Amino acid sequence: MLGQAKRLYELNSLLHPEVKSKRECKIFAVTSGKGGTGKSFIASNMALKMAKSSSRVLLVDLDINLANQNVLFNISSKKNLYNYLTYNQSLEDIIYPYSENLHLIFGESGKIDHPKLNEDKVNMLISDLKAIADNYDVIIFDTASGIENGTLQVLLKSDEIIIVTSPEPTSVMDAYVIFKLLKSYNSEVRKNVIVNKCFNKNEAQEAFENLEKATKHFLKSDIFFLGELSFSEEVVKSIHNQAPLMLSENSPQIAAQIENISSKLRIPTNG
């Protein structure tokens, strides 16, 4: 199976040699060390905020066999990454045009024959994404939680990483482990942090400072604080209702926090 994926990647490279994009398109990987941090909620609403601000965004659900984005957007799509990875269907064929500025690629759920992401498949995916990168300003990966090899390869090949944690010490430690693994690969990718589900700003700042101290002391690496998101019943309701929060006016505080976080990301401006 690995050999077949490698041959497909090599064939794809021959048929579609990598061409430098005329537009600058940045790849952000939104990830977390454990499930339940709100990673997918943040990825979807950040994508919506960027699209509303006139950036052309492609959101890719890379939790390939436990997909969430189709649930959050309440969309049923017959074509997704399973078709791309299993049947060699083109990326263009599985893109869902949610709006003029926001396109989606969904993952799958519950396929017993679903191939796992490995380095060859990630390379092939990145290569194919770069071939269509002129269509977008931003590509956002919503990765699987944890740090399996496929997720690690995605992080290593992204332009910036956004790690979502919560104030819980176990969640902060899981975020640190991701930084430690990236350091072992000598990765210089910019590492950003969002602290979610906070009851106040001080709680978020304390969680980030603890993470930053450990990262600087033991790993000699810098990390950057994007901001916090407050714990909110409106967030829970938006998930239950499968209605993205950024499309409503029910929670202006969370919307403002997402806008603040998005404004700190270095998104290319293309004319």
Short description:
The chain is of the alpha/beta class. The protein has helices at residues 2-15, 39-52, 69-72, 81-87, 91-94, 119-131, 149-156, 169-184, 201-219, 233-240, 252-263; strands at 26-31, 57-62, 96-97, 102-105, 138-143, 160-165, 190-198, 224-230.
3D architecture notes:
The chain is α/β, with parallel strands linked by helices. It is 44% helix and 17% strand. The chain has eleven helices and eight strands. It has helices at 2-15, 39-52, 69-72, 81-87, 91-94, 119-131, 149-156, 169-184, 201-219, 233-240, 252-263, and strands spanning 26-31, 57-62, 96-97, 102-105, 138-143, 160-165, 190-198, 224-230. An eight-stranded mixed beta sheet has the order 3-4-2-5-1-6-7-8, with helices on both faces. The mean pLDDT is 90.
What structural class is derived from the secondary structure elements? alpha/beta
Please report the distance between the alpha carbons of the first and last residues. 43 Å
Strand order of the largest sheet: 3-4-2-5-1-6-7-8
Secondary-structure arrangement, i.e. CATH architecture:
3-Layer(aba) Sandwich
Low-pLDDT segments, ≥5 res: none
Helix content: 40-55%
